[in-house]
Fold this protein.
Amino acid sequence: MNRKFGSGAGRGRKIATKLVQSGVKFDTDTGAVSVPIYQSATFAHPAPGKSTGYDYARMGNPTRQALEEALAALDGCESAFAFSSGMAAIMAVMLLFETGDHLIFGEDLYGGTYRLMDWVLSKFGLTVSYVDTTNLAAVASAVTPKTRAVLLETPSNPNLKITDIAAVAALCRKKRILTVVDNTLMTPYLQRPLSLGADLVVYSATKYLGGHNDLLAGAVLTANPRLADELTVIQQASGPVLAPHDAWLLLRGLKTLAVRMDRQQENAQYLAEWLQKHRAVEYVLYPGLHELHPQADGPGAMLSFTLRDGELAKHLMSGLEIITFAESLGGVESLITYPYLQTHADLPEETKKRLGIHERLLRLSVGIEHCEDLQADLERALGQKR
């Protein structure tokens, strides 16, 4: 039986308020404002045949439950499942499918999702077609009698293309297949795919939801009772659940998501407009530079840019003092990534070339530092002598 958390609680409140209130009033016995960390692997039974509602931590833990309740409220659904990483969350979704099933993936997506399919799931008879999900006709053409789902990211990673979630979801309903949206870059603060018709939403909560580069976590959410029942079994049977301390850290991170994201978006917009005019930059990819699709409440805080000089792109990171050259994204600290050799290194060379993931492309996760300091850091690195 799936766990329902009553998404009606707090209905009508703004999402910034829901974020701050995450976990508050969960512990009604003591009135603790902060959810306790229930660091226990097992729970005592009051008597034979009776339970407190918790038996073994893989099956359920109060700290994790508080987090899952908060996540469900944010996305406006009744069922949320917390996992040990974003890839564990995606793997849980993939376990909904069977040998012989066909899936459609957005072609411009996180390299780890590609690796999961190419290295692992292909061994079990799942097949995949990679499609530009911004092209609805291309998605429709890729559907076969064995297709079971479309998985997309919007904005995509690293090219930040915008897919119309509602349009894809409508197509999928017509074809009787599932729509899965990786909403990591937007978070529920800016975009809520379930309200647009998606069946499942996936997060790498390591990123913006946690926000401090200090935990690994993932989440899957759905408003579909049948899918929730199946995910309950998958979560409990496969075992990659989120540990209590990480669940607590993630709850704490959620409380500041709105203020963090507001600042990060402001900084990203400032830097995107400045980079667009820089002599060393060929072009900038950032949703805030174009008319925003109405499905989102903001452009997010990720941007990519291509330099004119390939050698400068390779060496730029060594000239940065504030921005850190590291994988991942979404934390309060600004991070820069070289997708060609890092996050998307395992994509076939011809695929990378077709998608524009080349040696001159850099991806910037904009943090909450002062925008003028970030600008000065980039200016220094872009003007360095080699």
